[in-house]
Amino acid sequence: xxxxxxxxxxxxxxxxxxxxxxxxxxxxxxxxxxxxxxxxxxxxxxxxxxxxxxxxxxxxxxxxxxxxxxxxxxxxxxxxxxxxxxxxxxxxxxxxxxxxxxxxxxxxxxxxxxxxxxxxxxxxxxxxxxxxxxxxxxxxxxxxxxxxxxxxxxxxxxxxxxxxxxxxxxxxxxxxxxxxxxxxxxxxxxxxxxxxxxxxxxxxxxxxxxxxxxxxxxxxxxxxxxxxxxxxxxxxxxxxxxxxxxxxxxxxxxxxxxxxxxxxxxxxxxxxxxxxxxxxxxxxxxxxxxxxxxxxxxxxxxxxxxxxxxxxxxxxxxxxxxxxxxxxxxxxxxxxxxxxxxxxxxxxxxxxxxxxxxxxxxxxxxxxxxxxxxxxxxxxxxxxxxxxxxxxxxxxxxxxxxxxxxxxxxxxxxxxxxxxxxxxxxxxxxxxxxxxxxxxxxxxxxxxxxxxxxxxxxxxxxxxxxxxxxxxxxxxxxxxxxxxxxxxxxxxxxxxxxxxxxxxxxxxxxxxxxxxxxxxxxxxxxxxxxxxxxxxxxxxxxxxxxxxxxxxxxxxxxxxxxxxxxxxxxxxxxxxxx
Length: 578
Ligand code: FAD
Prior knowledge:
It contains 23 helices and 20 strands. The protein is of the alpha/beta class. The longest helix is centred in the middle third of the chain and has 21 residues.
């Protein structure tokens, strides 16, 4: 006789087969049959109780971004479901696998306008890569198995709506998940195409490589090929960490969340080798006339951001590995040397700013402290706003470490939930959540979650009492400041009140004290650093070059941004005759 199993438990076993070991959320009446099943399997899958479903959803996304494994969040019918939306959009826009299991009233009550009942499928229709309501207890494990496959395959959020009555029924224990059969096949490039790549790069005078997250597995190859062909390396902001910041050929990213050397190189280049990226601002920062070689596993990306001269549908790592085999070492070019000098000048400026002791504090000394205590495999989750700029510029990373932000959806309040996900997946790694006071305030209550599960996260808050990123946009569009000043709070004291160890830092001595504790913390800590409300150096609007700006303009710019030591790139191009 066929063994019986509760439908909910059969579904939870599917999650186990796919390697899920924790799910985030808040229970509710319409989800109780699945909570019952999770309870039965609690030795295999841990239920992480958060204090807001949005935090649960963002923790699941952050977890997926850091680990590469699907993140799972749950919500009940009605508000539990709607609160998940931020995380689902984040997963969709940043292309990560995520599963949302959503409660629904029992089948017998559906479509009666019952308590908390809403038609969830249309609501999730815009965001989900897979979006189904379970119709029978027998199909529950099957639908969840399909959902996970779609989430991996289409790199986005899958939603399964489960009427509560579907989870409590005894069904035949015959369902086998397809987890063991699932494989990822990265397409390989053709040698003919790669020979064209090499010829085009050799023919260019000022080529560079621009990498995105698609090059995540290719850190060594990117660096080796770049060195072989004298290619300065630029990247998107979320691709930070793929190439170590110690590699002086790595100029980092262009845009606003950017560095000076990358912003200056991209309009000057005559060939962009664009690997595994969908950079949204290319039209503003890339030389529109540059030749463009694009490698991506998704052909819909070709020519999307810049006209493409050569498009290769292939895996970044495989392509670069083969290019290294087919290529040959080239002499170091004048263009390469000019970029290296420009980057050295930038790094010297960053280092000098890190020595600042002025009060209110600048952000550079704070990142100096983070870098000082960060372990070799630390995880950095970085929020949205000016802090995204700071994290990109000032974290000194290596490829064993992890960097994550809400790249495309730009969800304020992302960093702290993502840190929870990162710490749960990697209990032995050190985790920093770095936010502004605007983003942190949106999710601050979930410090309680860090305390409840004893997650020793170092939460750093850069408090300027302002939505500084938007304030700068109001300046750029010649608006008056409106709606961008925010009330401050003592976030260190809030952290303490929520059960963490809180620090409120006003000066360098207090900063050192807090980070001395953070270095070996075994408990969650909240370090609220009161900083000056100053705009980060606008590298996208530099006024440093005497060929383009008057002496008065340059002086005024340097006075605001303390940038007199920064040398315009044009000087290095002239020095090296590049
Ligand atoms: P994705 O958009 O995820 O693209 C990755 C690409 O790689 C896709 O096309 C995918 O198909 C491809 N791919 C995946 N796997 C492979 C593989 N194995 N081989 C080959 N290809 C593969 N970013 C900046 O750079 N500059 C800015 O100024 C900037 N400003 C921002 C401001 C804020 C406030 C925030 C929050 C973010 C900002 N960002 C900025 C981030 C930006 O919005 C995008 O998220 C980012 O540029 C996209 O990065 P990406 O192209 O690496 O990732």
